[in-house]
Write a structure and sequence with these properties.
Serine Threonine Protein Phosphatase 5, Tetratricopeptide repeat; mainly alpha
Length: about 210
């Protein structure tokens, strides 16, 4: 089974770059449109960030790390480089440093769902299942259309917390959002979960729904 999913390709390029996440669709309220436009990074900044992320995508971790560190130092108000530095640290197995970057990113952008999704994955890896659940739920609260958070929450319920009825709901929500990554595999898991949930005592299903 493929486990946690952290970011999509689109997230790597644009999500979380603006201080208030104004580049994430639907995040700014209509009255905040002028503020979002004012805080949006310039094309030059976007190009610089894209160049740094090209090293991430090429798995050139040393160059990516240096470029993202420099970009973050020049643009401390932006959460995107902090998120990607956290992901790099997770890939390198430095979970303490990853958590520091996630914490910095949540301070910079209080409404960025991908940061909380990544923090949930880190919590899950460290066996902090309740904290992982809360992080994924926070991501969903901030962006109800963020498919990856539903996927990761479903995996958590399925494999770690043993709540198949909740795993089923979240896998279904993941697919309903038009996710196209591993759909056939997820559909097989859903079929298995339906069998497991139907075999549960009625009282157990009712308790799981509360």
């Amino acid at each position: 089974m493929s486990l946690q999913r952290l970011t999509s390709a689109a997230t790597l390029l644009a999500a979380l770059l603006a201080a208030g996440c104004s580049l994430v669709g639907g995040d700014a309220a209509p009255d905040d449109a002028a503020l979002a436009a004012a805080s949006a990074p310039s094309p030059a900044v976007l190009a610089e960030y894209s160049a740094a992320l090209a090293h991430v995508q090429a798995s050139d971790e040393a160059t990516a790390d240096s470029a993202l560190q420099a970009f973050s130092a020049a643009h401390p108000q932006l959460a995107g480089p902090l998120l990607n530095l956290a992901l790099l640290r997770m890939r390198q197995g430095d979970e303490a440093a990853a958590r520091e970057y996630f914490d910095q990113a949540t301070a910079v952008c209080t409404s960025c769902a991908p940061v909380w999704n990544g923090l949930g994955v880190l919590n899950r890896q460290q066996g902090q299942f309740s904290a992982a659940e809360q992080a994924y739920l926070k991501a969903i609260e901030l962006d109800p259309g963020y498919a990856l958070a539903y996927y990761n929450l479903a995996v958590l319920y399925d494999l770690y917390i043993q709540r198949p009825e909740l795993a089923l709901v979240n896998y279904q929500q993941y697919l309903s959002l038009g996710a196209d990554d591993g759909n056939a595999e997820v559909e097989r898991w859903i079929a298995d979960l339906r069998r497991r949930v139907s075999a549960m005592p009625t009282t157990a299903r009712a308790e799981g729904a509360t």
